[in-house]
Design goal:
Elements: E1 3-5, E2 12-14, H1 22-41, H2 47-54, H3 58-66, E3 82-83, E4 90-91, H4 98-134
Antiparallel strand pairs: 1-2, 3-4
Bound molecules: zinc ion (2 copies).
One zinc ion (ZN) binds near residues 84 and 86.
Length: about 140
């Protein structure tokens, strides 16, 4: 038995060759049909256009591409093939474009700085408390 996280909702489920949990499977299948149908009429559409015109999230279209499901339908994606999960810009690799990656890294840095600050503050409080305890 193999447990995996659902690629749509993150729910842990028993893996049976399908990447999403049973709850999301119908939703995923519907998205796939919508995208497939759209590509039949727009075989050269970029992932961004597919996402915009079908309303299916770009990250979902990207996943269909990564899983090879759309390739089986004859869709290769466009030049970039992938699009940024955050803003939809065409990219060649990874999940985010350079701009979003920079933003994410900055946020990460800020978050860890905030964490460090909180730890320092806790340290101070601790020190004051231990001084008070002495008296
Ligand atoms: Zn799910
Ligand atoms: Zn982006």
């Amino acid at each position: 038995m193999e447990l995996r996280n659902c690629r749509r909702c993150g729910f842990l489920f028993r893996f049976k060759g399908y990447y999403v949990c049973p709850n999301c499977q119908a939703l995923d299948e519907r998205d796939f049909q919508v995208v497939k149908e759209y590509l039949r009429n727009h075989p050269r559409a970029s992932t961004v256009e597919v996402s915009k015109d079908t309303g299916v999230d770009a990250s979902v279209v990207n996943r269909f591409l990564r899983e090879g499901r759309l390739r089986a339908e004859g869709y290769q994606g466009t030049d970039g093939m992938l699009s940024c999960d955050a803003c939809g810009t065409a990219i060649n690799q990874g999940r985010y474009c350079e701009k979003c990656l920079a933003t994410l890294q900055q946020e990460l840095k800020r978050a860890s700085a905030g964490l460090r600050q909180a730890q320092e503050n806790r340290g101070k409080v601790h020190t004051i408390k231990s001084i008070k305890d002495k008296f």
